[in-house]
Amino acid sequence: MTHHILRIDASARRTGSISRDLTDRLIARFAEEGETQVTTRDLTAPLPQIDEGWIGANFTPAKERSPEQRKTLALSDELVAELRAADTLVIGLPIYNFGVPASLKAWIDLVARAGVTFQYTPDGPRGLLEGKRAIVTVASGGTEMGSDVDFATGYMRHVLGFLGIEDVQFIRADRTAIDMEGTVRAAQDAVDALPLAA
Fold first, then answer.
1. Higher pLDDT, 198 or 37
2. Less crowded by CB within 10 Å, the N or C end of the chain?
């Protein structure tokens, strides 16, 4: 059975990126384990910010949307389809100024849609993307993962859980400005040791 992977790279750097190198390594491991199909969403190709027109289209019932509104939501629909098709998300997450890159926030804003990827219930919101796994490779120069100034990894765990993805694991290459070689080696070892079977 083919394992479907959605790879999301949020680093602004195409070369010399630790998070990209780790996602490369992780994808290669999956390929060694069995047949995989990888869809890559490289966020150096910028996504639009949501605006008033997008919000209006999103909150118009699907059957009532105009052709222009359907066009406005076309990219969001494509991103959601990629998410739905994936068994596993592999996300390369550099920490920029203590948080997630703006490009990744733009992706989140385009896929977090009430009635599509989550729904409100009398018991609170419920994610509609259950049964998926996410592996996040984290890179930072000075921000320690899990510290009081890490506003990226907790946010990602919450957002993914909000969408129904509760199985979230992090590979950390944090504080590379302190010990680049040792930190990267430890992260590579963590990728190599990560159990891939569901």
1. 37
2. N
